[in-house]
């Protein structure tokens, strides 16, 4: 990597002198240069012509091996490509073996996607070679190569038309493989205007091809055209419906997608029912066809059909409700009155003579099934999906039922019983999906007592995720009667005794139950508190989790119904004050004794105004170094406190605090660079500065481009100071810090080029200009160039207030400091392993940072173990609105092991992000557990 960056810096073109113009540091195809330099170091050939020249006298087998070597390398000089392509084309024309010709075409595609070769020249060469080619295998490969080359760049309209015309010509090939790839090329590259005129109809004709692969590709290409903006006409619908009964699964799959797409695009189009004069909406008929596919023999088709049902939310109510009933309602036929039937009989002119039995019967006997507006397979389709033997089909059916219920409240009520039945499924994933689906539609339903019994029986599930999901669902739903609420409370408390680790989840459940049922809670308050109307009852233990659950529910209900406060005994009021202080996130503020006014950060105490005042004071003191540094130190404490008391400004306050801390470290190191002595060790200050820069780069999200520029400029200053101080120290190699500076400078230069309105500060402009003028960036020369700039650098610009900044942080739920205290020591035989349950919640963790998550275990002898948690242990936190976008829960086990200790000592466990090798950023304070490895007991 160092060589690649060094090369990119050496290719700098010197720009004019003004500091406002950012020097261009070339970063074109940085990854390919890194790959190329890595291959150079291994000693392999770097000239593609040296390989291609070997093909002249090689046999077919030898030529194939040479082409494979070229494919494995792909690190050649791009200036040799034209001659190499010409010689490869010549060898293609004289090569008798089709496998070698296929490999040459495949090499063209690899060159187009991996290097900067001219794609238009390759398109011309490939089409010329394929025009005289006779082998169907080679032509098929050529069509694949044309697709890859076309996707590697943006071809002009002329080249697109050239590829499309060639594909249309090859449609008439007798080879089914050639037809398939020609149709694929048409779907990807045909112009939208041409597709609507003739190409769509041309592709549609191949849905009747005798080869199943061609039929499937025809539907797939039409769907691709639809994704590109082509209007798919309803006339394609009969053709797609006919293919739903195809013998091949691949065709049925694509036809099913086409039916769904047409139904969603043209929901109000009226079509005739088969063998009838009745008309139905296209979305209704398509819904019935998709429902019928749930009875398909293939599991993949059944799963796809179950998934597609959830997207057809515009279907009529009678068709939607029919999916939950296996009996076809009234045969779905239109009933005529007696007057209409008599009028039709009179108009026919046929009268019964009475001489022949049943001579007045209808001339045409019509079967009830033939005039149904919905195929019989659609009846009970979702029920069929829920009862399928494969969990994929059941999961997809539950998801679709949830999506349809969210759009139709009446259907939500009807589907409630079916979702409740899925709580007894044998697969945990299906049970969880049913629980989350019921939580999502909870605003449309009210639970009955018989439904609650089935739900509450699942509370004793061995899976902690299922139990927490049920707690979330019970908190989201409403119950109908006092008996139902009593049943819920009693069952939740019973399960809490069996699983005490669910304490926090249970508290949250009871909190939401109280908020949603204040009137019912008021009616059972004396019963729950064991408050006798005449006799004083004994004071209950406020540390009892069951009693705390009851109080949390009643206090949250009293927030919406203040009349409940008169029912609370005096001891309950005292317990309220204690719980309000110890768990304010579960117990709301009530009008009970003392001052009930809640502090609001508005006006002169507003967080934003405080930040503005703080930054303006620092800005006014910028010209005085001592006053500025004193203000920055005081501002860090104030910002840390603001982050604790105002969660809305937590990210902004933490970002500004870390930025100020890095600025203070930088000013101290700048004094050291000018020859002054500082109090703290230079090496320690450098480590702290690098850590703060890594925090600014990795722990904060939702940064504006101005904030990103400030961070990049801060990192550039830090890397420059790092190089200067290491060269001055002369105790270690400066090659690594020099390459780091070049890499950060290249990144900053690219960022400024991409965001032209941004203006870099004088330090950044001067550094980039100096680096652009260095031809051979060796550490000594770079040091001499940047030393005067570093020594005379002006202070860093203060960041602007951005209230959208979020900081990635974690909170360890289990273990706690009390769970493994000195009285509760983890004892294990020395050398063996103790598994400690670990649960943590993470906020604002980016999707790209999941693989960087680590667990850090620090033993008393200063040994540190870094543990990589399993991917399946990290999941998004579920809320009533669905999956949280920014909150994650890590649930795993930390393995502890050590040699013999004389006494129990504390082991620190924390969660961190591995941003660089040997650089972990801690996301929370470590939790300490007492651990005691005991010696092995010897037998007698």
TrEMBL record:
Domain INTS4 8 helical bundle, first and last residues per copy: 608-802
InterPro entries in the cross-refs: ARM-like, ARM-type_fold, INTS4_8HBD, INTS4_C
Taxonomic source organism: Anopheles merus (Mosquito)
Protein name: Integrator complex subunit 4
Keywords: Nucleus
Record's GO cellular component terms: integrator complex
BP GO annotations: snRNA processing
Subcellular location: Nucleus
Signal peptide annotation: none
Superkingdom of the organism of origin: Eukaryota
Integrator complex subunit 4/Protein SIEL C-terminal Ig-like domain ranges (all copies): 812-936
């Amino acid at each position: 990597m160092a060589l690649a960056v060094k090369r990119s810096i050496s290719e700098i073109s010197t720009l004019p002198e003004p500091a406002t113009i950012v020097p261009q540091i070339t970063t074109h195809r940085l990854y390919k240069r890194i790959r190329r330099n890595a291959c150079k170091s291994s000693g392999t050939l770097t000239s593609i012509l040296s390989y291609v020249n070997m093909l002249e006298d090689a046999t077919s087998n030898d030529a194939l091996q040479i082409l494979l070597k070229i494919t494995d390398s792909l690190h050649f000089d791009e200036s040799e490509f034209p001659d190499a392509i010409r010689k490869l084309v010549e060898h293609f024309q004289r090569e008798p073996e089709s496998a070698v010709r296929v490999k040459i075409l495949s090499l063209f595609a690899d060159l187009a996607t991996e290097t900067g070769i001219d794609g238009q020249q390759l398109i011309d060469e490939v089409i010329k070679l394929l025009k005289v080619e006779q082998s169907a295998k080679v032509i098929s490969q050529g069509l694949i190569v044309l697709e890859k080359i076309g996707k590697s760049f943006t071809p002009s309209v002329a080249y697109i038309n050239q590829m499309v015309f060639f594909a249309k010509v090859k449609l008439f090939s007798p080879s089914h493989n050639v037809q398939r790839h020609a149709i694929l090329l048409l779907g990807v590259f045909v112009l939208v205007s041409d597709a609507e005129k003739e190409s769509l109809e041309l592709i549609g004709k191949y849905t009747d091809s005798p080869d199943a692969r061609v039929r499937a590709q025809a539907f797939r290409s039409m769907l691709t055209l639809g994704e590109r903006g082509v209007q798919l006409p309803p006339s394609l619908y009969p053709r797609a419906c006919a293919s739903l009964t195809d013998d091949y699964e691949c065709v049925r799959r694509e036809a099913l997608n086409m039916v769904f797409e047409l139904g969603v695009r043209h929901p109000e189009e009226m079509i005739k029912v088969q063998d009838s004069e009745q008309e139905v909406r296209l979305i209704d008929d398509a819904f019935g066809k998709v429902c019928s596919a749930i009875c398909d023999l293939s599991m993949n088709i059944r799963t796809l059909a179950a998934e597609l049902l959830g997207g057809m939310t515009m279907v009529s109510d009678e068709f939607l409700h029919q999916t939950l009933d296996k009996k076809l309602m009234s045969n779905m036929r239109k009933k005529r009155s007696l007057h209409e039937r008599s009028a039709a009989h009179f108009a026919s002119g046929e009268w019964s003579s009475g001489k022949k039995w049943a001579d007045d019967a209808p001339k045409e006997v019509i079967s009830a099934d033939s005039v149904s507006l919905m195929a019989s397979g659609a009846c009970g389709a979702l029920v069929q999906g829920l009862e399928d033997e494969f969990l994929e089909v059941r999961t997809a059916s539950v998801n679709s039922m949830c999506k349809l219920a969210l759009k139709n409240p009446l259907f939500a009520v009807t589907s409630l019983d079916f979702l409740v039945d899925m709580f007894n499924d044998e697969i945990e994933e299906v049970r969880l999906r049913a629980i989350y689906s019921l939580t999502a539609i909870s605003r449309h339903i009210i639970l009955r007592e018989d439904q609650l019994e089935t739900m509450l029986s699942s509370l004793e599930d061995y899976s902690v995720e299922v139990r927490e999901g049920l707690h979330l669902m019970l908190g989201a739903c409403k119950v109908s009667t006092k008996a139902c609420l009593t049943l819920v409370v009693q069952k939740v408390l019973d399960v809490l005794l069996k699983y005490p680790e669910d304490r926090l989840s249970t508290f949250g459940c009871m909190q939401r139950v109280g908020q949603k049922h204040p009137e019912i809670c008021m009616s059972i308050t004396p019963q729950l508190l064991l408050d006798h109307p005449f006799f004083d009852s004994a004071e209950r233990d406020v540390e009892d989790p069951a009693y705390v659950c009851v109080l949390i529910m009643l206090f949250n209900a009293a927030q919406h119904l203040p009349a409940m406060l008169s029912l609370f005994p005096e001891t309950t009021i005292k317990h309220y004050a204690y719980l309000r202080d110890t768990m304010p996130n579960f117990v709301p503020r009530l009008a009970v004794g003392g001052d009930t006014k809640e502090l609001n950060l508005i006006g002169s105490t507003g967080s934003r105004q405080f930040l503005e005042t703080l930054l303006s004071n620092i800005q006014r003191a910028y010209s005085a170094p001592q006053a500025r540094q004193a203000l920055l130190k005081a501002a860090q404490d104030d910002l840390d406190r603001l982050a604790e008391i105002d969660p809305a400004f937590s990210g902004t306050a933490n970002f500004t605090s870390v930025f100020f801390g890095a600025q203070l470290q930088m000013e101290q190191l700048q004094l050291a660079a000018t020859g002054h002595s500082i109090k703290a060790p230079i090496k320690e200050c450098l480590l702290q500065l690098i850590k703060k820069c890594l925090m600014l780069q990795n722990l904060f999200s939702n940064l504006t481009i101005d904030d990103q520029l400030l961070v990049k400029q801060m990192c550039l200053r830090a890397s420059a100071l790092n190089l200067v101080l290491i060269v001055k120290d002369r105790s270690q190699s400066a090659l690594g810090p020099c390459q780091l500076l070049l890499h950060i400078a290249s990144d900053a230069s690219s960022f400024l080029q991409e965001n032209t309105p941004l203006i870099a500060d004088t330090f950044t402009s001067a550094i980039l200009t100096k680096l652009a003028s260095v031809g051979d960036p060796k550490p000594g020369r770079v040091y001499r160039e940047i030393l005067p700039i570093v020594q005379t650098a002006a202070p860093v610009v203060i960041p602007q207030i951005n209230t959208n900044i979020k900081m990635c942080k974690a909170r360890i739920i289990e273990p706690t400091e009390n769970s493994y205290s000195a009285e509760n020591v983890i004892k294990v035989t020395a050398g063996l392993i103790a598994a400690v349950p670990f649960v943590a919640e993470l906020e604002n963790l980016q999707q790209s940072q999941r693989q960087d998550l680590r667990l850090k275990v620090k033993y008393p002898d200063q040994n540190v173990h870094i543990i990589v948690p399993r991917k399946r242990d990290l999941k998004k936190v579920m809320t009533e609105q669905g999956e949280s976008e920014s909150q994650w829960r890590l649930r795993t086990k930390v393995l502890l092991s050590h040699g013999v200790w004389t006494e129990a000592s504390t082991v620190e466990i924390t969660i961190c992000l591995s941003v660089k090798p040997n650089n972990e950023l801690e996301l929370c304070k470590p939790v300490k557990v007492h651990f005691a490895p005991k010696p092995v007991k010897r037998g007698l």
